[in-house]
User: What shape does this take?
Amino acid sequence: MSDNSNKVVVIYKSKYGSAQRYAQWIADEVKADLFERSKITLNDILKYDTIVYGGSLYATGILVVLV
Ligand SMILES: Cc1cc2nc3c(=O)[nH]c(=O)nc-3n(C[C@H](O)[C@H](O)[C@H](O)COP(=O)(O)O)c2cc1C
Assistant: This one.
């Protein structure tokens, strides 16, 4: 968990695990909360000061699954 002055969340969407692994490394390094995209709501995301998103690329762009 990050401190109260700058709450950081790392959110990821991963098909085969690579984006998940990088998201975990980043979250560990900056002491951020970590969520898979479908496990966090927009209201919860808005409670953070810094939002990091990671997803793999599959030809059409970054992998995102919206709500
Ligand atoms: C069908 C397919 C299409 C891909 N398209 C791209 C692409 O357009 N650009 C890119 O940089 N990587 C592309 N990749 C590579 C993946 O983004 C890369 O392997 C990524 O690490 C997979 O992440 P994941 O394990 O979290 O799903 C593609 C991979 C596959 C299998």
